[in-house]
Amino acid sequence: MTTPPCQQPHQLIEKVVTHVLINSFHSLSVIVTVHLYFGPTPPPTPGHLLYSTRLKAIANHAGKIIRDVLKKGELGIVQKENARDLQTEADRAAQRCIISSLSQCFPKITIIGEEGDEESKQISGKVYDPTPESTIQVTCPPHLASLGEEEIVVWVDPLDGTAEYTQGLLDHVTVLIGIASGGKAVGGVIHQPYYNYQNPGSELGRTIWGVVGGTVGGMPIVAPPEGKLIVTTTRSHSSSTVTDAVDAVCPDEVLRVGGAGHKVMLLLEGKAHLYVFASPGCKKWDTCAPEAILQAAGGILTDIKGSPIPYQASVPFRNSTGVLASAPGQNHAFYSAKIPQHVKDNLKA
Ligand SMILES: Nc1ncnc2c1ncn2[C@@H]1O[C@H](COP(=O)(O)O)[C@@H](O)[C@H]1OP(=O)(O)O
Ligand SMILES: [Mg+2]
Ligand SMILES: [Mg+2]
Ligand SMILES: [Mg+2]
């Protein structure tokens, strides 16, 4: 039997140094500094998953797989529930990589991936070795840093924005790895594999990570412009209730783009104020990572009624009551109250 890659000796490993301090909001936080060195690998601690460079490395590798499949040109498109619900070889291969790599390092966590059990079970010999690549510094609240493996549920969307991927709208594509505990989204990584693909010479791809009650990293958080309201919503899964909800908040501008991860990134980088999706189309893997990162940055993601979305392993996958997300500093409750009652009634739990 071979030793899992992340438990092999003589490889770069992470030593975690924890300092407890009172942060600028006068609440108790933990600064976790991840140092890299050669030596025998101790088993990673479960809460470690939240701030580990492993998550970022695995998401980046899934992004490389997505680019490689497209370069090869054999997308292997399969229709799932309907003509607007597709799966490609990139979705399948990226999920195999993420789930096999994560479960090798953290065998007791619950991992739920969009593309189902069959993809997850095919743990081939080619497990990606998520050896950390760089030093990062994040803050993580003590109750999350000390989580046990059994307390963690990881929601994986190996390729968010599949419709746009097949249509060549490549910067709409993201890889989403969301971490939940106690039914709440507590941390996550969004990797955008084609960021900068239209700017030759610039670094291709970017990765954003965040821990609720801790920090966000990977991109500057920018406030959206004052004095106007920019709403982002679906471009490929619209309906009359989707349109009614968008119209009800009276936007000055509407950005119709693909992907839940991509739309939350627009909120984080100040390109939109609100993400409105009055549809049961999104699932828990679409919203877990984006919700955690947005919340870590000071924004809010709920269902269309303003109620929290639950993330226990036992909940239905579908976000049947829609999605409403607001950039940091926006009045989430105000916009939720503007969604018409017939739209809310149409989205039953
Ligand atoms: N009707 C639907 N059927 C399947 N997936 C959906 C549907 N609506 C939304 N999604 C998922 O939510 C994401 C965000 O929706 P949209 O892009 O329409 O705003 C989509 O990229 C898709 O994720 P995925 O691409 O991972 O299948
Ligand atoms: Mg899909
Ligand atoms: Mg998705
Ligand atoms: Mg997907």
UniProtKB/TrEMBL annotation:
Pfam families: Inositol_P. The keyword Zinc does not apply. Keywords: Hydrolase, Lithium, Magnesium, Metal-binding. Gene3D superfamilies: 3.40.190.80, Fructose-1,6-Bisphosphatase, subunit A, domain 1. Its EC number is 3.1.3.57, 3.1.3.7. Its cofactor is Mg(2+). It comes from the Eukaryota. GO terms for biological process: phosphatidylinositol phosphate biosynthetic process. InterPro entries: CysQ/Inositol_MonoPase, Inositol_monoP_metal-BS, Inositol_monophosphatase-like, Inositol_monophosphatase_CS. CDD domains: IPPase. One of its GO terms (molecular function) is inositol-1,4-bisphosphate 1-phosphatase activity. Mg(2+) binds at residues 114, 157, 159-160, 286. It catalyses: 1D-myo-inositol 1,4-bisphosphate + H2O = 1D-myo-inositol 4-phosphate + phosphate; adenosine 3',5'-bisphosphate + H2O = AMP + phosphate; 3'-phosphoadenylyl sulfate + H2O = adenosine 5'-phosphosulfate + phosphate; 1D-myo-inositol 1,3,4-trisphosphate + H2O = 1D-myo-inositol 3,4-bisphosphate + phosphate. The keyword Cytoplasm does not apply. Belongs to the inositol monophosphatase superfamily. This is 3'(2'),5'-bisphosphate nucleotidase 1.
